[in-house]
Every structure is written in C-alpha cells, then in structure tokens.
C-alpha cells in the first residue's frame, strides 16, 4: 500500500492528532511521572503491540532512570473487542515490591485493562498505575482508574502511532480515524 492510499483510508473530517500534538502531550505526562515517582524505582510495562510508539517516546521524555518490560494481551479481532483476554507474551521481570506503570496506547471498553491490572496486582508490586495516550470515555464498560491520560477521544476506530487495523497503519506518525469504506 502506498502513501496515497493511506491518506484516502483516513476520514479527513474526523479526529486527527498530529505528531507534534502527541509528542507535546507525552512530554507533559513525562513531567508528571517524574514528579510523582521522585525517589522511587519505576518499571514501565508496555502493552504490545500498540504501545511501542507511546513507550518509546514517553520513556525518552522522562528525566529519570526506568526499567522497561513488555506484555502482550489481546481481546481484539478486526475492529471489535471480543471481551476474552489472552496473554500472548508475559513479563520477564518479577514485580514483587516494584512500582509499576502500565503504558497503553488506547483504552476502549476498559475490560482488557481491568483484567491486566488485577493480574499484575496479584504479583505483589508496591503499586500499579496506568498511563494511556488515548481513552474513549463513551466506550468504557468498566471503570478503570487511569492516572495519566493523553487525550480523551470520541468512540471511533483510530489508527496510527502504533494503533492498527489488521496490522496496517501502525507506522503512521499521527493518529486519525479510519474511513468506514476501509473496513465495511
């Protein structure tokens, strides 16, 4: 797929977050994290695959040492959440006594993240908090306490900056709404 097709796959009248919007907000969140975790060791847990871009830019914006680990969980098929969570890749790090910050790309229903928080808390960490670039308040089915939110967005299917549709569009530097003709 060439760049011309990518542009026609996005809805120009819907949500569009530029790379500078995203990076600016991540720097603000990094400042909050630096202040909140001053004097504490911090483990960032990125949720694969979508959070790769968020994790890279957020961690580089921090003015502190952090450890990074990855976990892959899935509840998606195409554009819809199935509601069934599967662990595809578990952590390599022991969480006992650690301050853990889950780094997410997006929170839709909250079901996957709620399950993940319970799973990680069962491993004995000192704390578990959440940072997400995007949250869809209108899609939430389960309350999830999120400490750091980049942007609240409408309940639409978005792609770019790590977010995909059938493994495409992750590499876009911005975030946009997928035009309905691409998946209907």
Structural features, described:
- Helix 2 packs across helix 3.
- The protein is globular, with a radius of gyration of 16 Å.
- It is built from 4 helices and 9 strands, in the order H-E-H-E-H-E-E-E-H-E-E-E-E.
- It starts with a helix and ends in a 7-residue tail after the last strand.
- The strands form 2 sheets. It has a 6-stranded mixed beta sheet, with helices on both faces.
- With 184 residues, the chain is α/β, with parallel strands linked by helices.
- The longest helix has 18 residues, at 19-36.
- Helix 4 (111-121) links the parallel strand 5 (99-107) and strand 6.
- The chain has one domain: Rossmann fold, CATH 3.40.50.2020.
Would you spell out the secondary-structure blueprint of this structure?
Blueprint: H1 3-9, E1 16-17, H2 19-36, E2 42-48, H3 52-61, E3 67-77, E4 80-89, E5 99-107, H4 111-121, E6 127-135, E7 148-152, E8 158-159, E9 175-177
Parallel strand pairs: 2-3, 2-5, 5-6, 6-7
Antiparallel strand pairs: 1-9, 3-4, 8-9
Helix pairs in contact: 2-3
Question: What descriptors fit this protein?
Answer:
184 residues; alpha/beta; Rossmann fold; 6-stranded mixed beta sheet; 3-stranded antiparallel beta sheet; globular
Short description:
This protein is of the alpha/beta class and 184 residues long.
CATH hierarchy class name: Alpha Beta
What's the number of helices?
4
Task: Give the % helix.
Answer: 25-40%
Strand coverage percent: 25-35%
In the predicted model, the low-confidence regions spanning at least 5 consecutive residues are: none
Identify the strand order in the major beta sheet: 4-3-2-5-6-7
Structural class: alpha/beta
> What is the tally of beta strands?
9
**Major sheet:** 6 strands, mixed
User: What is the 3D shape?
Assistant: globular
Order of helices and strands: HEHEHEEEHEEEE
Radius of gyration: 16 Å
CATH architecture: 3-Layer(aba) Sandwich
Mean pLDDT: 91
How many distinct folded domains? 1
End-to-end separation in angstroms reads 18 Å
CATH topology: Rossmann fold
């Amino acid at each position: 797929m060439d760049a011309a097709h990518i542009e026609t796959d996005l809805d120009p009248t819907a949500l569009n977050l530029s790379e500078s919007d995203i990076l600016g907000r991540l720097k603000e969140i990094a400042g909050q994290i630096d202040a909140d975790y001053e004097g504490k060791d911090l483990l960032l847990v990125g949720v694969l695959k979508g959070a790769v871009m968020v994790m890279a830019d957020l961690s580089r914006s921090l003015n502190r040492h952090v450890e990074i680990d990855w976990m892959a969980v899935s509840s998606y098929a195409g554009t819809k959440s199935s509601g069934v969570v599967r662990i595809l890749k578990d952590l390599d790090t022991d969480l006992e006594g650690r301050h853990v910050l889950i780094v997410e790309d997006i929170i839709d229903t909250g079901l996957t993240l709620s399950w993940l928080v319970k799973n990680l808390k069962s491993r004995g960490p000192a704390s578990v908090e959440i940072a997400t670039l995007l949250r869809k308040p209108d899609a939430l089915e389960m309350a999830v306490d999120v400490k750091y939110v980049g942007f609240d967005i409408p309940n639409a299917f978005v792609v770019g900056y790590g977010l995909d549709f059938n493994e495409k569009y992750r590499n876009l530097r911005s975030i946009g709404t997928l035009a309905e003709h691409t998946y209907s």
